[in-house]
Amino acid sequence: MTPIYEVLKNNNTTIKPIWIMRQAGRYLPEFREIRAKNPDFIKLCLNENLSAEITLQPLKRFDLDAAIIFSDILMLPYGLNQKVEFKKGIGPILGDLNLDNILKLDEIDFVKKLTPVYKLVNLIKDNNLTKNKNTIGFVGAPWTLLVYMINKKSPKLGLKSDFFKDEKLINKTLKIIEKFLKVHIKNQVDSGAQIIQIFDSWAGLLSEKDFTNYIYEPTINIVEYTKSLNVPVICFPKGIKKFKDFCEIVKPSAICIDYEVDPKEILKDIQIPVQGGMDPKVLLTDQENLKKEVKKYLNIFKDHPYIFNLGHGILPETNPKMMDYLVKMVKDH
Ligand code: CP3
Fold first, then answer.
1. Which contacts of 287-295 are long-range, i.e. CB under 8 A and separated by 24 or more positions?
2. Full-prediction pTM beyond 0.85?
């Protein structure tokens, strides 16, 4: 069994596998080289051969235990015919959400539009570099996708003041997201994804009274669906405080924690496998400090099923040598 499956399925505490969020990305010069020649990010994601090459770039350099497919959570609104663009220095910008058109959209057309993503999964699963490693597929959580689809840009500076104004639109959109998330997950799994991670990057924007409607209920449906396909599902509800409630209610196979979470509190409260936590900024310091921080996480979780990862994506300014040092240190532990 692969090291990550050992942790997720057998609760193995003796091995500490590692993969890194955004491991294929801008901190690698070989990624930047391909990216410079491909200014249209969506088109790049729809080029399965280039996306496969990018997905495998970090595995060629580092002894990681998983490949996460090079794609984006915003491929879902793209598949629903909402315009998605990535503007340099700004981030994603989405077009108007046309619910009438989306309601008419059929599953076959959605799958057709995203077929290169599924071909990519297949290429990764069958590549020699992923032997005895896992291929991880992913989706955005319903809430985070709703945020992008309604807000139409990153909510870094907060949600638009009228975000919740049209309750009917919100509820209908959530239902559509849920339906097509299942389609997107099923197709990734059928193409060879062995684990699904659900990114809820903007969970922290909500107050706890809204968790049931926007986080728990829609996420439970997606988690249960993924588990019904016999595939472990890792949830990353970034920015929440009540991880114990989240795990008890949503019941993911594992929980990924962000860098603001106290790992000792998690250890006390959580029985399921844990992933991640270390602040990506640690990789911008020096080897001594990195060593200290890595040891902290490995020590705290020494008797707990744990997958090493960061508490958010690796930063573009990271020196690949620090990543190399990190992976070797976790592997030698
Ligand atoms: O982790 C991986 O290596 C797999 C690839 C991956 C990407 N996006 C590629 C990408 C994954 C898992 C994602 C998830 C994603 N996308 C999330 C959830 C995780 C998180 O970061 O919170 C979100 C919120 C998005 C939406 C998104 N995509 C944003 C906000 C941006 C712009 C970010 C920025 O720094 O400019 C993207 C673009 C994006 N997705 C890049 C990559 C490598 C950068 C592309 C580039 O400009 O070169």
1. 287/322, 287/325, 290/322, 290/325, 290/326, 290/329, 291/329, 294/326, 294/329, 294/330
2. yes
Q: Is 24 in the pocket of ligand 1 (CB under 6 A)?
A: yes
Residue of 86, 94, 146, 147 with the most ligand 1 atoms within 8 Å of its CB, for mutation: 86
**Domains of the chain, residue spans:** 3-332
**CA 144 – CA 290 distance, rounded (Å):** 31
Torsion angle of the four alpha carbons 290, 291, 292, 295, in this order, in degrees rounded to the nearest 10: 120
Q: Is the CB of 117 under 6 A from ligand 1?
A: no
pLDDT in tens, the chain (333 residues): 999 999 999 999 999 999 999 999 999 999 999 999 999 999 999 999 999 999 999 999 999 999 999 999 999 999 999 999 999 888 999 999 999 999 999 999 999 999 999 999 999 999 999 999 999 999 999 999 999 999 999 999 889 888 999 999 999 999 999 999 999 999 999 999 999 999 999 999 999 999 999 999 999 999 999 999 999 999 999 999 999 999 999 999 999 999 999 999 999 999 999 999 999 999 999 999 999 999 999 999 999 999 999 999 999 999 999 999 999 999 998
CATH number of 3-332: 3.20.20.210
Question: Residue 72 Cα, ligand 1 centroid: separation in angstroms?
Answer: 6
| Closest-lying ligand 1 atom to the alpha carbon of residue 154 | 30
**Ligand 1 pocket, 136 CB below 6 A?**
no
Spacing, Cα 14 to ligand 1 middle (Å): 32
